[in-house]
Specification:
The chain has 183 residues and is mainly alpha-helical. Helix content is 47%, strand content 0%. It starts with 11 loop residues before the first helix and ends in a 15-residue tail after the last helix. The model has no long low-confidence stretch (mean pLDDT 92).
């Protein structure tokens, strides 16, 4: 019996037929973005994802911030479901970038562990980048600035007044700016 995708699954084979983003990868990312969104809305599971945020975000983690951050997974899933004309346009703000990193990392973990039933994904056309979790970051991100927020050696990098912030041309790394649109 052929694998049946979820009822709300887009036609990833068509949407990503002529892009560098593999249909299987797009489908997995879409599925995991929805999974994380559901977990963030579940009080028993949300803490696990909140702990994955950079330490600099901790003072700002009130209900409003968490709800706004959770909504970014829905935005990412929606963009993946519509197809992407410009792959680096998937993440439009720092919160999106952090959420996308979490989605990619969790997707890779689940894929390696066979943690989800992805028979419907395996039925999609084969692409050379189906399992390229390193290369996908090169495709989907303009830069990897947000990763500095996770590095203790770069404490204070979120401060727009810091020399590193200014000289490196960083934008919106402070949590209060995470939801501002990147240029």
């Amino acid at each position: 019996m052929p694998a049946v995708p979820p009822a709300d699954a887009p036609d990833f084979a068509t949407l990503y037929a002529s892009t560098p983003l593999a249909p299987r990868m797009a489908a997995r990312l879409w599925d995991v973005a929805g999974l994380i969104l559901d977990e963030l809305r579940d009080d028993d599971m949300a803490e696990m994802w909140i702990d994955e945020l950079p330490i600099v975000a901790r003072p700002y983690l009130d209900d409003r911030f968490i709800a706004a951050f959770a909504s970014r997974f829905e935005v990412l899933a929606g963009r993946l479901a519509r197809g992407l004309n410009e792959l680096t346009g998937l993440a439009s703000c720092t919160a999106d970038e952090i959420a996308l990193h979490l989605v990619i990392d969790r997707t890779e973990e689940l894929h390696e562990e066979a943690g989800l039933d992805w028979e419907w994904v395996d039925a999609l056309p084969i692409h050379p980048a189906d399992d390229d979790y390193v290369g996908i970051k090169d495709l989907l991100f303009r830069d990897l600035d947000v990763m500095f927020l996770y590095e203790p050696a770069f404490d204070g990098v979120d401060d727009p007044e810091s020399e590193t912030y200014r000289t490196q041309g960083f934008a919106h790394l402070h949590p209060r700016d995470w939801f501002k649109t990147l240029m």
